Amino acid sequence: MLMRKWMWVLLLIIPVIELFGFILMSDWIGAGKTLLLMILTSLIGIAMLQFEGRKVLFDARAEMERGQVPGRKMVDGLFIFVGGFLLLIPGFVTDIVGFTLVFPLTRPIYRLFFLGWLEKKLRNGSITFYRRPK
After folding, report:
1. Which of 6, 25, 71, 90 shows its CA 20 to 30 Å from the CA of 55?
2. What is the pTM of this model?
3. Mean pLDDT by 10-residue block, N- to C-terminus, for the chain (134 residues)?
4. Contacts with 48 (C-beta within 8 Å, 6 or more apart), sequence order
């Protein structure tokens, strides 16, 4: 229930922040250049998404062939997917967050917080993990 409220708040606040950022940037460099910059960041983001996505898939496949579970690669793949989605949304704030999710040097920061959150949820019983019988 609380998560649903947060989703509604985000759906209302993010467009307002993006519009505010667009207006500020338009005042600073002009509306045409701002629009061009937004298109350019989306194109660069899509290229990064494709490159990083292929790299993570290749690394995950290599780990599975060695008989290992590609846990970190799966989390990286999730972040790349979310980052790519954010890069497709027009706006500067979502582009910044999307780039940092797709970019390999900043992704470990998100992974650290995500795994900490996941561990907390597993410990308090909010998320249950079931193993399949062998």
Report:
1. 90
2. 0.76
3. 76 88 90 89 83 86 85 86 86 88 90 88 77 71
4. 87, 99, 102, 103
